[in-house]
Prior knowledge:
The structure is a homotetramer.
Chain A: E1 12-13, E2 17-18, E3 24-25, E4 39-43, E5 58-63, E6 69-70, E7 78-83, H1 91-105, E8 110-114, E9 129-131, H2 134-137, H3 157-166, E10 171-176, H4 178-193, E11 199-204, H5 220-239, E12 244-250, H6 257-265, E13 271-273, H7 287-298, E14 300-306, H8 331-345, E15 351-355, H9 358-362, H10 368-386, E16 389-390, E17 392-397, E18 400-405, H11 406-411, H12 421-430
Parallel strand pairs in A: 1-5, 7-8, 7-10, 10-11, 11-17, 12-14, 12-15, 13-14
Antiparallel strand pairs in A: 2-16, 3-6, 4-5, 5-18, 8-9, 17-18
Amino acid sequence: MAKAPSAKTPGLETSIQTLGAAKIPSPLRYGRYVGQDETLELRLTEEEADVSAGPGVPFKFEKAGPRGAMYFDSSKVKCAIVTCGGLCPGINDVIRAIVMDAHHNYNVASVIGIRYGLQGFIPKYGHDIIELTPKNVSNFHVFGGTELGSSRGPQAPDEIVDALERMNVNVLFMIGGDGTMKAAANIVREIQARKSRISVIGIPKTIDNDINFVGRSFGFDTAVEKATEAIACAHVEAVGAFNGIGVVKLMGRESGFIAAQATLALKEVNFVLVPESPFALDGPGGLLDQLEHRLSTRHHAVIVVAEGAGQHLCEASGRTDASGNPVLCDISSLLIARIKEHFKARAMEATIKFIDPSYIIRSVPANANDRVYCGFLGQNAVHAAMSGRTGMVVSRLQSRFVHVPLELVTMKRKKLNTASDYWRAVLESTGQEEMPQQG
Amino acid sequence: MAKAPSAKTPGLETSIQTLGAAKIPSPLRYGRYVGQDETLELRLTEEEADVSAGPGVPFKFEKAGPRGAMYFDSSKVKCAIVTCGGLCPGINDVIRAIVMDAHHNYNVASVIGIRYGLQGFIPKYGHDIIELTPKNVSNFHVFGGTELGSSRGPQAPDEIVDALERMNVNVLFMIGGDGTMKAAANIVREIQARKSRISVIGIPKTIDNDINFVGRSFGFDTAVEKATEAIACAHVEAVGAFNGIGVVKLMGRESGFIAAQATLALKEVNFVLVPESPFALDGPGGLLDQLEHRLSTRHHAVIVVAEGAGQHLCEASGRTDASGNPVLCDISSLLIARIKEHFKARAMEATIKFIDPSYIIRSVPANANDRVYCGFLGQNAVHAAMSGRTGMVVSRLQSRFVHVPLELVTMKRKKLNTASDYWRAVLESTGQEEMPQQG
Amino acid sequence: MAKAPSAKTPGLETSIQTLGAAKIPSPLRYGRYVGQDETLELRLTEEEADVSAGPGVPFKFEKAGPRGAMYFDSSKVKCAIVTCGGLCPGINDVIRAIVMDAHHNYNVASVIGIRYGLQGFIPKYGHDIIELTPKNVSNFHVFGGTELGSSRGPQAPDEIVDALERMNVNVLFMIGGDGTMKAAANIVREIQARKSRISVIGIPKTIDNDINFVGRSFGFDTAVEKATEAIACAHVEAVGAFNGIGVVKLMGRESGFIAAQATLALKEVNFVLVPESPFALDGPGGLLDQLEHRLSTRHHAVIVVAEGAGQHLCEASGRTDASGNPVLCDISSLLIARIKEHFKARAMEATIKFIDPSYIIRSVPANANDRVYCGFLGQNAVHAAMSGRTGMVVSRLQSRFVHVPLELVTMKRKKLNTASDYWRAVLESTGQEEMPQQG
Amino acid sequence: MAKAPSAKTPGLETSIQTLGAAKIPSPLRYGRYVGQDETLELRLTEEEADVSAGPGVPFKFEKAGPRGAMYFDSSKVKCAIVTCGGLCPGINDVIRAIVMDAHHNYNVASVIGIRYGLQGFIPKYGHDIIELTPKNVSNFHVFGGTELGSSRGPQAPDEIVDALERMNVNVLFMIGGDGTMKAAANIVREIQARKSRISVIGIPKTIDNDINFVGRSFGFDTAVEKATEAIACAHVEAVGAFNGIGVVKLMGRESGFIAAQATLALKEVNFVLVPESPFALDGPGGLLDQLEHRLSTRHHAVIVVAEGAGQHLCEASGRTDASGNPVLCDISSLLIARIKEHFKARAMEATIKFIDPSYIIRSVPANANDRVYCGFLGQNAVHAAMSGRTGMVVSRLQSRFVHVPLELVTMKRKKLNTASDYWRAVLESTGQEEMPQQG
């Protein structure tokens, strides 16, 4: 390895690992090259990164883009793509962009698709490999989900590197969430230990938009669009009954970005509940009290609840899922039960309609905005790989594409800042009062 | 009343009640009048009506449409509209069409909207009344649900007729399902007992498409369109995991029309389960066996289950809901539990994704096809009322609009004929084998 | 040929040609067979067929569906599919259904796709042939248009039959409009002259919905849905300017079905102009006069004009296009010019926005309703072919699928009956007055 | 006026005019106030601003947001909103946000809507005024266009200020394009000359995305989404014919942002033509040559052309429209004529389908992303006005909302930088070669 990772505690400069010196001229047809070590200084907002040094500290990131010199002789390169974790709009667009760019710009020897996430590297699962060509990926963007299949959970890094070596893969593109980026870091360590020459480039994927140092994760915009459709339905249901209450559960295990953004996009939400803002159900000013007031005056209400909200209200199961995430308690069921109980005790008529649109939100094809974004992510991932970068992800921050070390993006999850102008606008849009946090 | 209801046991002639002789010239601007007693002979298919006399017996129905002579002096008429039961695409289109036709064609004195279903007639609920004018209903079609609000369950017919008399209502349009049509019949009886002169016209609403003598209920087409979107998502989810299983629960308490039609519309469904076709879960050829075979060969599957399917597999609760319908057992939870158990016992990996899109399906605005249909239903309801008809519903059968006595539509619910070409095509589309009915 | 075509002048019985006796048992897995010569009596409405014998005369049609006995040994059959003329939603669904049914139900040897319409049969064009399999057509329904490509205009029947014989094709499915159905009849005659044993089955395609004896042509419903979106935009544009006029040109060379249905579906149209109803531009009660009145009182207006409307107002060019259809004069340009002139002369402000959505309407994928319909058309076409039928089309009339001889469907085009209840409802929806026909 | 406008030649600091000292405590319920003169330093990219000082020079902008102290006693304030120029998705969302924020946050006395653009101020047009309340704007976001109506062209500033004074308006919100922002500057000058105390706040609107110092104009994202639908149809049409050519004309008088972004979003475009990149039609490497090559190898092509592209190829008319913009020559007609001619001369079959979706693109309701954006624009416009700012617009740059002096945004139009990474990616997506600029 040419450089050791020097990602200091957040702040200042970030540095990207490379496999070695880039000496081979780039074959790009539409060339405007970025300088080999060109950087960009950005002062990040609280919505872009949660950093210990506090907001506003300037960061220097390496600029993404094609370099004039390559580390690999691209025409001899074999690439592999793997998709891990839950679905998210745009995965197929990223795959397509990687394949198109690798073939059309760099004329690579081959791009293969690993089936069903990290399982696809492990012989015992017996999954096949797909050769990905410009022809067979040309319609990928029409379909939601991942054409490669996915799976959750880790696999042994040494078995994965064994597989990469066995297949003569030079570049591995990993599309996945927090867990996948951590797995990527482990794979990079294993590759380094073997003094192997394989580049690992991450493209962070999270429908929750909670990856640190990623401005807005791909698919988020599409997810919000679909979420507003579900909220519109909840509103129609709420209005359609006397004291009708529409409850919509949205994704957001540890952060309420989708819930917040969808609330801003559709002005029909009266209460929005997110993990970052613990709330009281009972007592004056608690959710039930505010809801009762709303129904008494307006006779309908819409509640949007992120799946990770209100975990302080229910007992933790202590279990974790296949990806290692804690199993959340079912806040929406709790809410519904408590709301029913509350109005029954007051002999107030109230009708609750519950909508859980999660699989409908995450499995649709990307919208135009996300497609453009995914295209750039895929292209820049290929550029980074060909120039010999490794152990990094491609990210967009303040409309620019940059390289971010894996260490930074996996350090912690990004959360909504409930003291921000953004969250203030969300509350304003709902009209809900700040709720006491103990009840 | 001029005529007694003479709806004989299904077959032959149907006859419609009137309030009295129609002697006042009609003010219609775009006139082509239907003869006062003009009828139409139709041989109904099994998908249109479930009749004891068997399919193919010709029925004579009174034709819908404007008559040259009216019973009411329309310019002095006050109409009321009430919407009952669950939401369905197109309710607002029917309301809009009634208001527009009553005002523009018949120049009626007033159309009022009753709030929150039959509750709106009962003083103790304290709901207000809305004056409906061409201006304030002009955008109703843009919104799903019902702008009047709805509620479930019956109210005392005498209190309802008291309210109608108190408000000087001459014509009551009732938009609702099976229960509402039975309520309409009771209201008609009360009106007759009082020798009152109020016309009651029903517009049958059911997202399940299970009303007898209604070819395809309004909103059904829109519901199927939305259902296919959910199925498409289930397919994407199923394909995205190894041995992925997408389960979609669709409306259909006693009949599987939506499940069947959506299956035909989106060719990704592998198993469709409807109330009319009891199926075995266990044993050779049972659902679990077929599903295991499907996963072993194709590694993904989509199951569509109507909410009323497989009730023989779980114990009845004996309870009924506010509308008097039996509370169904939760077949989808049972299915999911049994599928998980089955594959766990076989140590086969299997991932289940469950989608319940019901509120998303029923609360969207109507599509173009349903809008045209709802427009004709509303107009013909007004025509029927002005000519003095009562105790009947407006229905479309074989592309014609006809009057059907309340007695006929409430006699029994329409069901899928599982011996029909239609159901055969559904099975063919899935590739599923006939399942043994005991397991 | 076993039977001579006996399609009498409209009325009574229709009879279908066959290649010979059906003696081979059918292999159908989901069997409920239709009787070999089973017929169905239908009294057609004016919207379904324009017949010289007048509406209401009962017709006997052969029922569509699988027969217990086949003429062909299906496992040895080679089928070909060709798509001709302009695009229409659902073509790919019909292709898909034919391929799926031929393979899955009848286990045919091969289905080939002819490229670019009838050109694909003619060696000089050099187009290739596509083998169509359940696998490669499985996603066809996701895409609009025709995956086979199309072309306009006739090719020599003997060259086509040469090609069929050279490729050993036993069954030819022709998806196309009026001209294509006439070409099909010529091909049948050529096959008969050669005493060849090739079945030719038509699936009538016309976005104008003007094929006689076809209740509603496939794709029509989708086209109307898209047309309403364009009309909604025209309405927004009209409202957005003082005396704003939105003009939308819709398909409809000789019949105004799309214009009429879209007008009923979206209640924002103030004037609808169709070929069947010649109208005066000038003079009292003419379009310009009514439009002026509308603007003076409401300050915005939406006009929907079928492309074939008002041809009496402009000089015929005398030319014909590649399909042999007369080149229409450009009524929308004429309208716009005359409207501008009219209001300029009166010094009335008026802003015209013109929308021509035709290619956007016809190239989208089919909606759920059309998909179900196309599925049945394709399946029934295969059933008809396997039983040895030829020289016929598959049609849906009053919710039933039937066989109709080519002679009947090509005799004349279906038109809107401007004296019908349907057209009355269209006028009522717009509020436009009957216009004098000379101006 | 408290401060003179000090907007220096681009670069460094921008300064915002105020009506006077802000001394009244703000009534905000969801308060986190921005410092009275808080600024933000941003280094703008070429896509955000075209500045003579060159890209990368840091700019200091005043931060948008609520201030703790107000200039106006908001409860006595009367606001007016006017919408000018062509339609664009999101106008109604901005109106709604202004009304909601003014009423709910600042409890203003009144917000009125001026009808039909600047005409609405001029008595001779006789347009009425609309009182805008939270209730009557609550559904505005459902509709495209502008509920206030619009018009093009200037009106005399003194007459406008007369009207403002006559109606006791304290704050005027102007939603419009380049011309409207220039009109706003004139109105501010007239107000200053009269020493009047009226605040004028602009919200820049342009579907072309060509306003300087505005990162991405509202509605642009929605417009691109709709544009891709038209391109998808053009692709289907192109593929549906042998040597099919789909031509789509998109908005973009002087800048090709929509064309470029839509090309990136839908990977089916083969040639994209924008005003910023003059191209040769003829000669080697010219458009016709490249198109011929494409058809010879792939047999279909999609061309996207911005309306202002290729103006060097046709003679300027010298005329201007009502807004003072030069009337463009019709490049799409020229293109189509020359393409037909070219292939006719070569006896190559070629079928051209032309789609002009402009009114369909600009009149749809905003998507979720644009709705959120419009909400912030409206809120920040109200905040700016209440604190006494004037002569400025609200803009989003690099995810932050800032105040920009009218002088800066009207100085020149923003254009695509054809040397940028962005444009390179566009070309790469099409595969088109750089064209010679003289042909």
